[in-house]
Amino acid sequence: MQTTFPRLMLEHAKARPDAPALREKEYGIWQSLSWSGLASLVRELACGLSQAGLQRGQHIVVVAENRPRLYATMLAAQSVGAVPVPLYQDAAANEYIFPINNAEITMAVVEDQEQVDKMIELRESCPQLARIWYDDPRGLRKYDAPGLQSLDALVEAGRAYNVQHPQFFDEQVALGQPGDVASMFFTSGTTGNPKGVVHTHFTLIDRAQAGASFDKLGPNEEVLAYLPPAWIGQNIFSYAQWLVCGYVVNCPESASTVTIDLKEIGPTYYFAPPRVFEGLLTTVMIRMEDAGRLKKWLFQRCMELARRVGPALMDGKPVGTTDRLLYALGNLCIYGPLRNSLGMSRVRVAYTAGEAIGPDLFSFYRSIGINLKQLYGSTETAVFVCLQPDHEAKADTVGVPIAGVEIRLAENGEILVKSPGLLKEYYKNPAATAEVLTADGWYHTGDAGFLDAGGHLKIIDRAKDVGRLKGGAHDGAMFAPKYVENKLKFFPYIKEAVAFGDQRERACAFVNIDMEAVGNWAEKRNLPYAGYTDLAQKPEVYELVRDCIEKVNADLAADALLAGSQIHRFLILHKELDADDGELTRTRKVKRGFIGERYQILVDALYGGKTSQFIETQVSFDDGRKGAVSAELKIMDVKVFPALRKAA
Asked: What are phi and psi of 546, to 5 degrees?
């Protein structure tokens, strides 16, 4: 599609001026912004930004939750040829320094007082940051920082300029070309400074269109935008595909109201990383713990039936008449109300991506009638590389290459991709660009995997993370830490896991318990506790987690390739892994190398045969304060199983 995002927006405004483009929940009431209203707002913002000095090719930072006026700001910047750079709104101020200086950013549009405070704080390190506009004025009435203004003031200035120069906006949009840079997304920087991934209008629009065609998306879809806009997954689903398809994007009131908003909107097209689906299932299981005996019995019987026949029904496979009738009864009593409770009654297509999803978790959603599928892609590929067709969703694959995509495997098993959606470059980093992009247009994904007999791509792990056991009964066996971690995280009681084993005789693990799920479990058993650290070290909790790990071990034993990856020993960490402490990325991916170094004393204790280890750790609180958490951590052995079958 040879066009740009501003042109797509203007086409929708012309064809369907009164149709809703965006909705925002404010004070408990959904407010709609039509396509014509959006076009007017974008025109005024574009004129205002240009008047303020934003020039073609320059970068402008946008830091916020999903908000209609912030979406309009990104469109406005693109309309005058500038490049919006969304950053994570929950990042600490010092995490913005490198992106802002790297991209030579002089202007920022932010959501509220919290973000304004961060921008003012980092001005000493980023002296070129001259202009800051904010959307939400609460708490900012007496701020007098230089260059600080409300977004309303920017709109007013743009409106006045538009009256004087009515052709300016249209002329600027007409200058835009599909090959112009549209956005820049910074990677999480797990092994050094973040890298700015440069995408053009063409790359983003082409992949958005390919994904939309694959699932027959149109203007009647409803989407809930609740994940960070700085994550390209959210950006593709609620910005690029929104402008390609013209559907409605709904912005929740706040992070705490997302579950309620999900039920009110009833999206038809839904996207979430596995952790969100894990959290929803955990909530369901906690509620069932509180249910009466009859209701719990009915739920268990219906779920047994659903697990047995639900996925087959979803895949269009033949199912016996009796099972079909029983499932219809279960749908009336359990599955339908459950989908409604999850806010997924109207979901036609649901996707998960970002990391692998546990097979049991995947099957659960499909078994109750939710068309959950997996996709594969990355920031560098504009997300869409492989998608699962309807009736071909498998828990252990990520789908087939979609239109325009070619896949081949390197000799070491790394997946290489050729696609119209590949990044233009890493900004100001030609060496890193050359590492991932070959001269003939192949992108090195860094993932290890293979295509199965049906043409579906199967991901094993990150190529650099796939290791080998050394010595012992499984000498030379493959060790895939992410695969093991994802299997552990299926259990509602385990929130995060970090597996170790490369170049060692056996695998061991750190575990984070899920405070809500385990807390509820403890309260049912009258088990008192004083916070996370205390609860995590309860002997009863260790037994609970050991039971989960032994079930994973039994499952791993059924696969001769991964039987050596069974966990032999584990400990429960004294604190939750936190992005503010550098242990997770902002998309909640575990930084295994950093964690291994930070907690080296615990790794040594696991492999040294100790039964406990004292540790004290510095932590960062939400308000910026520093503190310390200490505890004597128990270390427990786990039962392992012999491999049940040999590799073919």
From this structure: -60, -40
